[in-house]
Design a protein that fits this description.
Length: 672
């Protein structure tokens, strides 16, 4: 039988209907799927321990002969097979649950490699459901691939199927780069890579295969992102004339403060995109308090003054309202009608705003998810700005863009983004970075206090209030339980223990008018301590707030802690951040929090957070057509990711989009 990359696995000898369904559960439908189905690890049969040297808790491999076996039925349909293996130094018991067919496999005196986690049970050492491989002298692959499995499949069967396919394959996938480029990058060819990822002849061959396949995956991903970027930044029909660099100086003259060098740099980048006739598609990220909002307002002003409508989408009502209150007067002075739209507004008020948007009277609209509803229709939306973009799903962000034609698009992130993440998630956007703070370096001193030191913390809060300083106390939940601290309970406790300190409580469930009044009182310094949930994390700007206490700090991510810490010390004076973990006893928790205390910049924290969490499921789902990574890791393989991006850029310059899609991207990006 001739086998091609497109041959369905159901047509391969030995597969059949039952196995075909099992393979489909692993998303293996064609020969191509199978070839790029990578082992999750390898069983190294060269490195095994003597049974007498095993210790409970470790993961290890041993080689031994079957000395005895016992099969036993338990209640219901449960059964187990207990196999005793000996290597002359000791005995290891291996227990296999609900696999009675293994009785014939583990015949007496047969020799096996066994790999798994060592446990102690009733005074003897054992492994439960370990990996196993029969040893036959002279016929041994020393590095055995271990695959993800589904019911009805075994590692041995997957290996046999892949070997059969490779032996009969008529042609391998087309090379992604010419020979010269591969030689320059020290990459092998695709046939070598696929054979050695599944059946490596040596550690060196395995490393070469992995490097090739990681590069290939990153290269195809970057190719798709760059092509998408090119499509989205096609020639703009919206607002492509009458805009120049001089307008940055005009904008600055309208402000009561001076722009920073970095703010001007990003504004120049936006103007440059427009002057090239491109649709702006840009991410702005940088330190907390670095002035991203001012750049966003510049963009809103720049476009709305030409007659098109603009919109700013914020994740919370508090943040949306803050933007509106801070900038309403600015726009009205320029005779640019501006409005705020929130979900909690009365329907009559929302209808007036909707009508103003539909007929084009309102030029700048700020709001929350209410901007995404179907019954909001813009007359001529020219620019969409999304603040705190990570708080929205990809499809939500796209909904705003879809309310106009060739809409210019800016997303903002107050969390600095590691380069590897930027290249992967946001490779279809231009990236702008604001690296300096408007008032110079902000100093926020960060400390970790034990739960038992609450009285000391309260004395600190009392002293701060006596000096006319304000601050926040943040808890993980509105109403907690025995495990989670409650904002409501903490508010009651502070009111009781610090009766002379005016205290407020804010969280997401409060009505809009009530939240508005609470924030107004805090801004006017009528409230000393504001107890809150993480609702204050995004963009709250009260310059005189000088301290923040974060209860159960271990329940917040490092990026989230950085956002919260960024709420204080914004006036230029020293700020204080106090982390109060539930317990000092968890080493991992304390290491994470101590790394946060030591880190000063958001970029450093973002890298630490990524290192600590790992890639995880960051790319585990298809987000708006971006495929998950099967073998590459953006933390570990950053160098290959950067090289792949560079090579992809060269190809995109030379080949027409149709050829790129046909050659590299068939079936890769789900919405293309």
């Amino acid at each position: 039988m001739k086998i091609t990359l497109d041959t369905p696995l159901s047509e391969i000898p030995s597969v059949g209907d039952k196995r075909s369904k099992s393979l489909a559960r692993l998303e293996l439908n064609s020969v191509s799927d199978l070839l790029f189905f990578y082992p999750r690890r390898y069983l190294d049969l060269r490195n095994f321990k003597k049974i007498s040297m095993l210790s409970p808790g470790e993961t290890a491999s041993v080689k031994g002969k079957v000395a005895a076996r016992e099969e036993k039925a338990l209640r219901g349909r449960t059964s187990y097979l207990n196999v005793a293996l000996s290597d002359g130094t000791g005995v290891l018991f291996t227990v296999f649950f609900n696999q009675p067919y293994l009785k014939d496999t583990f015949a007496l005196n047969r020799e096996f490699f066994i790999s798994g986690r060592v446990e102690e049970y009733k005074g003897r050492i054992q492994m439960v459901n370990p990996l196993y491989e029969e040893y036959r002298d002279g016929k041994r692959d020393w590095l055995l691939p271990v695959y993800p499995l589904s019911e009805g499949l075994t590692h041995k069967y997957i290996r046999r199927l892949i070997k059969l396919v490779m032996d009969r394959l008529a042609e391998y996938p087309e090379e992604i780069l010419p020979l010269k480029n591969r030689l320059d990058l020290k990459l092998p060819n695709v046939k070598f890579a696929l054979r050695n990822i599944h059946f490596p002849l040596s550690d060196m061959n395995l490393e070469k295969a992995r490097n090739y396949l990681i590069f290939r995956e990153f290269f195809i991903l970057q190719m798709g992102l760059l092509l998408r970027k090119e499509k989205e930044q096609k020639k703009s029909k919206v607002c492509d004339t009458g805009i120049n660099e001089g307008l940055i100086d005009v904008f600055e003259s309208l402000l009561p403060f001076k722009l920073t060098k970095h703010q001007k740099k990003v504004m120049l980048e936006i103007v440059g995109d427009i002057k090239k006739g491109m649709v702006v598609s840009r991410m702005i990220h940088g330190e907390v308090g670095s002035g991203k909002t001012v750049v966003a307002v510049f963009a809103l002003w720049l476009f709305s003054r030409t007659g098109v409508q603009t919109a700013l989408l914020a994740p919370t009502e508090i943040l949306a309202e803050q933007h509106y209150l801070n900038w309403q007067e600015f726009f009205l002075k320029q005779e640019i009608p501006v409005a705020l739209l929130l979900g909690q507004f009365p329907e009559k008020e929302k209808n007036v705003t909707r009508e103003g948007i539909k007929n084009g009277d309102i030029k700048v609209l700020m709001g929350t998810h209410a901007l995404l509803t179907e019954n909001l229709q813009f007359k001529n939306l020219g620019l969409a700005v999304v603040d705190e973009q990570h708080k929205f799903g990809v499809k939500q962000r796209e909904l705003l863009k879809e309310k106009g034609k060739d809409v210019h698009y800016i997303v903002m992130s107050a969390t600095p983004i590691p380069r590897s993440v930027a290249l992967t998630f946001y490779g279809a956007l231009d990236i702008s970075t604001i690296g300096e703070l408007p008032k110079g370096e902000r100093r926020v001193l960060t400390y970790i206090f034990q739960n038992e030191e609450k009285e000391r913390i309260y004395r600190f809060l009392e002293y701060q209030n006596s000096q006319g300083r304000q601050g926040y106390v943040v808890t993980p939940a509105i109403e907690g339980n025995e495990n989670i601290k409650s904002a409501v309970d903490e508010y009651d406790k502070i009111k009781r223990d610090l009766p002379d300190v005016p205290c407020g409580l804010i969280h997401g469930r409060l009505p809009h008018k009530e939240k508005e009044e609470i924030m107004r009182r805090f801004r006017e310094k009528k409230t000393g301590i504001l107890v809150a949930t993480s609702v204050i994390e995004s963009g709250i700007d009260v310059p005189d707030a000088s301290y923040i206490v974060i209860e159960q700090a271990e329940r917040f991510g490092l990026a989230q802690l950085h956002q919260l810490r960024g709420r204080v010390g914004r006036s230029g004076d020293v700020g204080y951040c106090i982390l109060v973990p539930e317990s000092y006893d968890d080493g991992d928790v304390m290491n994470r929090l101590e790394s946060f205390v030591a880190a000063e910049s958001g970029f450093e924290i973002a890298e630490i957070d990524l290192e600590l969490r790992g890639q995880g499921d960051l790319l585990g789902v298809r987000q708006h057509g971006i495929p998950p990574l099967k073998i590459g890791n953006i933390v570990r393989d950053m160098e290959l990711l950067t090289i792949a991006r560079s090579e992809a850029q060269e190809v995109v310059k030379k080949l027409p989009p149709e050829e790129i899609e046909k050659k590299f991207l068939k079936g890769v990006f789900t919405n293309d």
